[in-house]
Design a protein that fits this description.
Layout lengths: L2 E3 L1 H22 E9 L4 E10 L4 E3 L10 E4 L4 E3 L4 E2 L4 E5 L3 E6 L3 E9 L6 E12 L2 E12 L33 H20 L7 H12 L3 H21 L2 H6 L6 H7 L1 H19 L3 E3 L2 H9 L6 H14 L1 H15 L4 H24 L12 H29 L6 H19 L16 H21 L35 E2 L2 H11 L3 E6 L4 H10 L3 H10 L1 E6 L12 E4 L5 E4 L2 H13 L6 E5 L16 H15 L1
Parallel strand pairs: 1-13, 14-16, 15-16
Antiparallel strand pairs: 2-3, 3-10, 4-9, 4-11, 5-11, 6-10, 7-10, 8-9, 11-12, 15-19, 17-18
Helix pairs in contact: 2-10, 2-11, 3-4, 3-11, 4-9, 4-11, 7-10, 7-12, 8-9, 10-11, 12-13, 13-14, 17-19
Length: 644
């Protein structure tokens, strides 16, 4: 396999095509569904399908097309028989499928269903249907809601606290949590900048620096023009990567916690796991990833020094042709910053763009510096393969996220550390020349730098192996937050992830009852199974004896997991209308607590710590990630005094 089309490009195309087809599908076909009671738990569903003229619906076909069917959002619904149709699909010639079973006019879908246990007042779901006309084809999911005669209205959870609860006193403790965004934003920017620096020393980018700068200096009529063009080229590179984050700002308007939902979604994390395995195999040298050549050719044909637009297209060409090396690094940046939202992604992309643009601009201003650049050679291939091992390690982090959120128990802490140790040993063997990968030369001399890096890899693997033993779990401070938490272990089981036992619960009502009974305030810990900074706080700050004892003696600790995919009982699921008027289905624990956090505290990032009095009055400004033990302890003490 010499050329592999980029997954991300394909994903974007499919994503926007899906949006477009769904939007068109809503006007092509409509479905109205009604439920008629047969007995206490059995209903007859009838869906009336209406079609636009000249369009048709596909029935069951050998090509894998299925006739229209119902899909229910409630897992307790059981179809007692297959759907039936008021008319029969007829075999007709079809441009796409040669001959196909087709419904040419509107029709009814009928199915008898049974609902076990609690019945809501409305049964929701989708009608799965495929429509076509000529060479046009759309598979659609059309939502429906059918009233149930025996259903009960779900009261739901009172998500909004009293109006006065979320307004702390003027002299409240600490700075508001959103005030810490600047420092975290800078951290993400510098992580992006670091990613850009790594991209610079890959085989796809590094050789482009002298070539591109020489092009500017030789083609420009004056030195001043060469400097100007080099600066415009660097600015164009920066803008390209910043503009790449723009769609996520549009997508972020759907719901405030959408990025947390994306970053902790089990299916997406498994997809990222597969993608990063794919990236690592490519970086090992088994094949190259590239965008379709037509895109690069189109961009290159518009590039010249004749205009600002030409320089911009030169920058686009660089971004495209270097994608095989920058793509995996950008992918890491993308999924790593999703939890922070669209602005975090923009900050990371800006850092990446600055690092990538800087050398092109600087060398255009000071072309004599080109003489000091090391020559391209085998060391670039070594850098790329080192990145392959890092990509492989990151792949298992995404699999771990899915495992934690779904509680599968596949990658317990010891298993995860063992896999990372094996990857580190593999890296060491490669650096010492014992493990040969594609394009490696047998018997080639090993540079001193490779030997030093190999020793570091061996030391790191020993560090990981040492931390596998439960008694040494606390020794892995450098990796705090990345491996699964210490309680997620093959050997030990703790009742709570953080080791605190007294007055600890995950139930808001129970926490409120304990707070009133003991006259103690509630410390709400908005956390997540896949939250790195949450684990850092638990393992580095809450583990401090002074902090641990103060929390246990003075607070009722309420840990609310915003990414928990455990389904709520059917009788507790409801549709919530947010303060902004958006509708949201609350079906899991994570849905409930993520919405509770966003609606009451205008925050969607974790960790977030809030102190409420027993009377549900906020005591102080909520705080986020606070790695300084004394600062966090001072906030706890001040908040406790305000809550009493």
């Amino acid at each position: 396999m010499n050329k592999v089309t980029s997954f991300f490009f394909s994903f974007i195309v499919v994503f926007f095509c899906a949006i477009n087809s769904q939007a068109q599908g809503d006007s092509i076909v409509s479905v109205a569904v009604k439920a008629s009671l047969i007995n206490d738990s059995t209903y007859s569903l009838k869906g009336k399908v209406t079609l636009q003229k000249s369009w048709h619906v596909y029935g069951n076909n050998a090509d894998g097309l299925n006739a229209p069917s119902f899909q229910f959002s409630l897992e307790t619904v059981k179809g007692l028989a297959a759907p039936t149709y008021s008319v029969q699909a007829s075999k007709q010639k079809d441009i796409l499928f040669t001959e196909a079973a087709i419904f040419s006019t509107g029709f009814d879908i009928d199915q008898t269903i049974q609902i076990n246990g609690f019945q809501p007042d409305s049964l929701k779901g989708f009608v799965l249907i495929s429509v076509g006309k000529g060479e046009q084809f759309y598979p659609l999911e059309l939502p429906f809601a059918a009233a149930l005669a025996k259903g009960q209205k779900v009261a739901g959870f009172q998500l909004l606290l009293p109006a006065s609860a979320t307004t702390p006193d003027a002299d409240a403790c600490g700075a508001a949590a959103h005030d810490t965004g600047t420092s975290s934003g800078l951290a993400i920017f510098f992580l992006g900048f670091l990613g850009g620096l790594i991209a610079l020393v890959t085989p796809c980018v590094f050789p482009m620096i002298p070539v591109t700068v020489s092009y500017f200096t030789k083609r420009s009529k004056t030195r001043k023009q060469g400097i100007k063009n080099g600066l415009l080229y660097g600015l164009s590179i920066f803008l390209i990567y910043v503009l790449a984050s723009l769609p996520f700002h549009i997508m972020g308007n759907v719901q405030p916690e959408i990025f947390n939902s994306i970053s902790t979604n089990a299916t997406l994390n498994i997809i990222f796991f597969v993608i990063f395995i794919f990236f690592s195999i490519s970086f090992f040298g088994y094949f190259e990833i590239s965008l379709p050549s037509g895109i690069a050719n189109a961009a290159d044909s518009k590039s010249s020094l004749g205009s600002l637009g030409g320089i911009f297209f030169m920058a686009i060409t660089l971004a495209i042709v270097s994608f095989s090396c920058t793509g995996p690094i950008l992918g890491t940046l993308l999924v790593g910053s999703l939890q922070g939202g669209a602005w975090a992604l923009t900050q990371g992309m800006a850092g990446f763009g600055v690092a990538l643009a800087l050398p092109f601009s600087l060398f255009a201003i000071f072309p004599q510096w080109l003489q000091s650049l090391p020559k391209s050679g085998g060391w670039l291939d070594t850098v790329k393969k080192i990145l392959a091992f890092l990509e492989l390690a990151l792949a298992f982090k995404f699999l771990s996220n899915a495992d934690l959120v779904q509680h599968w128990g596949l990658l317990k802490r010891e298993v995860f550390l063992g896999i990372w140790a094996l990857i580190s040993i593999g890296l060491a063997l490669y650096l010492f020349g014992k493990l040969r990968l594609p394009h490696d030369v047998k018997g080639a001399p090993i540079a001193t730098a490779r030997k030093v890096l190999g020793l570091i890899a061996i030391c790191f693997s020993a560090y990981l192996v040492y931390g596998i033993a439960p008694k040494n779990a606390g020794a892995l401070k450098l990796l705090s937050g990345f491996p699964p938490p210490t309680h997620y272990s093959l050997f030990t089981a703790a009742d709570t992830p953080h080791g605190l036992q007294a007055n600890v619960t995950n139930d808001y009502a129970k926490a409120l009852a304990l707070a009133k009974a003991q006259n103690k305030p509630i410390l709400i810990d908005f956390t997540g199974w896949a939250c790195v900074n949450c684990r850092k706080m638990e393992e580095n700050v809450w583990s401090d004896p002074a902090v641990a004892s103060y929390i246990q003696e003075n607070f009722v600790l309420l840990s609310l997991y915003v990414d928990d995919r455990a389904l709520l009982p059917v009788g507790k699921r409801f549709t919530y209308t947010s303060k902004s008027g958006q509708l949201k289905e609350i079906v899991s624990e994570g849905d409930l607590w993520a919405t509770f956090q966003a609606e009451n505290f205008n925050q969607v990032t974790q960790p977030l710590y809030v102190v409420l009095s027993a009377g549900e009055k906020i005591a102080s400004n909520p705080v986020g990630y606070t790695p300084d033990i004394q600062e966090y302890l001072n906030w706890l003490k001040c908040s406790f005094s305000k809550a009493k």
